């Protein structure tokens, strides 16, 4: 069985997942976040970039009978597409797909374009999934995710960073570990690499 079909089977989804080659998260990354979500039942999930990740996470919330996904998406057409896909899977009640255009944020005197967070509700984030913005936009594109959201992370929370095999993502993880205390890091060998950061603020 192909990996995406395995996910469809595991989550008892009635239709095929709308995979966009080259842009959708790889199936093994989706498997990891699915397993975590079903086991740990996070209440507030924030994701940076919408798409297949949103379908998988919302379906887990539906099966868990708890949890909500707040999905930041800078492309209006991709936000609408994700909403349409959620409706097709009858999962729209488990997510807020938030149109979040990129805006300037300055961290350690360096400027980045990152998601506008004005429409993100003030919740304690139990699980953060980072699969955007795309790396081609700028150097260290995903760097702002943790510094911007750290104060909103729950005392015990977990971050999943996709594409962690890339040198830029490795550098981003090093920067995060230098900036914040109380984080442990595990690298998982997936097709594109996954960094899991466990936060303990207690
Ligand atoms: C790597 S994609 C990840 C999307 C999502 N997490 C998923 O698993 O499907 C990151 C971003 O690329 C953009 N994107 C998605 N499809 C695209 C396409 N076909 N061409 C250009 N950009 C795209 C969207 O803004 C999306 O948020």
Main β-sheet, in a few words? 7 strands, mixed
**Which structural category do the helix and sheet elements fall into?**
alpha/beta
Oligomer: single chain
Proportion in β-strands? 25-35%
Q: Give the total of beta strands.
A: 9
Distance between the termini: 43 Å
Radius of gyration (CA) equals: 16 Å
Can you identify the CATH class? Alpha Beta
Q: Give, in spatial order, the strands making up the sheet with the most strands.
A: 3-2-1-6-7-9-8
What does this structure look like?
The protein is an alpha/beta fold and 202 residues long. It is built from 6 helices and 9 strands, in the order H-H-E-H-E-H-E-E-E-E-H-E-H-E-E. The protein has helices at 3-10, 27-40, 52-64, 76-88, 145-149, 167-179, and strands at 44-48, 68-73, 95-99, 102-107, 110-115, 125-130, 153-162, 183-188, 194-200. The strands form 2 sheets. Strands 3-2-1-6-7-9-8 form a 7-stranded mixed β-sheet, sandwiched between helices. Strands 4-5 form a two-stranded antiparallel sheet. Helix 4 links the parallel strand 2 (68-73) and strand 3 (95-99). Bound molecules: S-adenosylmethionine. S-adenosylmethionine binds at residues 20, 23-25, 49-53, 73-75, 78, 131-132, 134.
């Amino acid at each position: 069985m192909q990996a995406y079909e395995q996910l469809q089977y595991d989550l008892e989804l009635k239709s095929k997942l709308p995979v966009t080659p080259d842009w959708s998260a790889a199936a093994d990354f989706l498997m990891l976040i699915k397993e975590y979500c079903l086991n740990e039942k996070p209440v507030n999930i924030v994701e940076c970039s919408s798409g297949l990740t949103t379908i998988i996470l919302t379906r887990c919330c539906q099966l868990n009978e708890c949890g909500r996904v707040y999905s930041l998406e800078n492309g209006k057409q991709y936000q609408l597409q994700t909403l349409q896909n959620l409706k097709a899977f009858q999962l729209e009640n488990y997510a807020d797909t938030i149109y979040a255009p990129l805006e300037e944020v300055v961290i350690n005197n360096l400027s980045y374009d990152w998601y506008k967070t004005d429409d993100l509700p003030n919740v304690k984030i139990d699980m953060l999934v980072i699969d955007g913005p795309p790396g081609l936009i700028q150097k260290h594109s995903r760097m702002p995710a943790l510094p911007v959201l750290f104060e909103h992370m729950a005392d015990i929370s977990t971050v999943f960073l996709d594409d962690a095999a890339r040198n830029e993502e490795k550098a981003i993880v090093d920067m995060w570990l230098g900036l914040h205390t109380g984080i442990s890091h595990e690298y998982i060998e997936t097709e594109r690499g996954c960094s899991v950061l466990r936060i303990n603020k207690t």
